[in-house]
Fold:
Amino acid sequence: MSTLVGFVILYLVASIAIGLYAATRVKNASDYAVAGRSLPLYVVIATVFATWFGSETVLGIPAKFLEDGLGGVVEDPFGSSMCLILVGLFFARKLYRMNLLTIGDYYRQRYSRTVEVIVSLCIVISYLGWVSAQITALGLVFNILSQDAISVPAGMLIGAGIVLLYTLFGGMWSVAMTDLFQMIIIVAGLVYIAFVVSDLAGGAGKVIDHAAAAGKFEFAPALTSKDVLAFIGAWVTMMFGSIPQQDVFQRVMSAKNENTGAAGSIAGGSLYFMFAFIPMFLAYSASLIDPKMVQTLLDKDAQMILPTLILNNTPLFAQVMFFGALLSAIMSTASGTLLAPSITLTGNVIRELYPMDDKQLLFATRVVVVCFAVAVTIFALMSQGTSIYDMVGNAYKVTLVSAFVPLVMGLYWKRANTQGALLAVIGGLATWLLMENFGGESIWPPQLVGLLVSFGGMIAGSLAPQVLGRPAAVSH
Structure:
């Protein structure tokens, strides 16, 4: 066994130990879902930062940047960091005051149980691709570290088992404590690697100048209707579509008070935006250090560029720091995104069918965590060949067209009601699905059309004579 693999195993053991220790704090469903609403600011910042600093940030975004420049990564990090900042500015305090356990609870309190169940199912479905991307990345990492001794599918199973182990018992407490530990590794590891790789490439200035000359910093789309609409569609997908997500919600709601939740979301989003550029810098540095390797992997699997660069060109300590940071990023996102849909499915769908007390809810949630882990691992195994960046980006389209408009309009428009919410959800979903399947020739992105129809459905349904649902019960 190599020294690098030994350090990685030690890191994994430490993560599991921290997660299991945090599990001792779980006494009820609230502890499991939102850490008893007791986290201090520095932990909230860490766990919000870890929301999206996963496989797509370290592997997917750099590959996309090399191919398409900044214009190709408008969704992430630009859209995702803006999402977290918007949550802190406009959503965190209002939602915190409602004392909710899940984001699905909001749709029940504001509208009806029907809206709650439909939106919650949409939220759960949206996590399939997201969590699967993290499982896929874990499989890649274990395959690389073992020098093909562990196959990618076997690596996926191992990675899923490790994340499941500490998430299952500790819930949000384990997620929060391991996120704090893993964020320290991510920040320290990436900063150190940036200095090492920068020296190999001839200095940061040379890398930045070369990227600028190659047009990699061109951000704005071409001034054609199709390109502008595609740019807007990509931007709003991540920025708005990820706001009504349970993982974002539970991280903010885990704070000890509303101001801590809001400040943690803004700070975590800003920190994410700054550090998400380091993997892009590393990937472009690789094109100067080993251009032949980069070109080969761009044609084969661009996600392998950074791991290959580190293994082939840096000393052992740099390798330990990089793979520690990479595993930290993936595992922190995987644990949170495994927990979030499981809590939503149990609390907002299953509990509506089978009422249960707090102990039963906690037990049922843990059972669902196991089931969802199995489901996303199977989905990941079936999705091999799909890029991590695409798997994550597609996850937010369903919540953009179904959940965003009822959330924001319910908080900021008093006349929003159940009929409007139902038309917004059903109209947005139906339009998006029709466009995805039959709108191939249209210049309009399907999710953007779905968002506009959802907004129109909310307005029309709320102002029209009430036929569906009950009058709105404004609770804010």
Confidence is low (pLDDT under 50) at residues 472-476. The chain has one domain: 3-399. The chain is about 80% helix and 0% strand. Residues 29 and 362 are 5 Å apart (CA to CA).
